[in-house]
Amino acid sequence: xxxxxxxxENKVDQLMDVLDRDIQHVQDTLSRLNELRGLVIKRDDxxxxxxxxxxxxxxxxxxxxxxxxxxxxxxxxxxxxxxxxQMTLSRLEAELSGGKKAGVTERRxxxxxxxxxxxxxxxxxxxxxxxxxxxxxxxxxxxxxLGQAGTITYSPSGxxxxxxxxxxxxxxx
Length: 173
Known about the structure:
Blueprint: H1 3-42, H2 45-80, H3 89-95, H4 98-146, E1 152-154, E2 160-162
Antiparallel strand pairs: 1-2
Helix pairs in contact: 1-2, 1-4, 3-4
């Protein structure tokens, strides 16, 4: 084999390892989103804090994988003689044959499927958090407005009176 072909195959092997880590990262993210929704519904603040801390620490370690993927992409683009913007998994598949091509195809399909699931789960989580924020806002507004003197009632004679004796919060300890 030519040294250039061996170099490309080595880079492809390294890229497949990175793609496997990407697949695992997306699967972990899907699991965390599901766990996050459950903890929000249960209102388990302690577990939410732990989950968010673990997400922060894993995000820092995942940056290394992202930089490795980017550098491999640049190296493969140079080796295949194309622009880095054109270096995609589909382009790489077209350049490969045999087992390497099948491996890249399998990982690309898996990542596409997981990306679709991640988009759906992200939307579900966003909708839940949006509804929680809206509900909390309505609840807080109703609590704060209950004790205000903004309520007007009418007496049997037709005159208006403001209700001032219906405080919601007792300030005595």
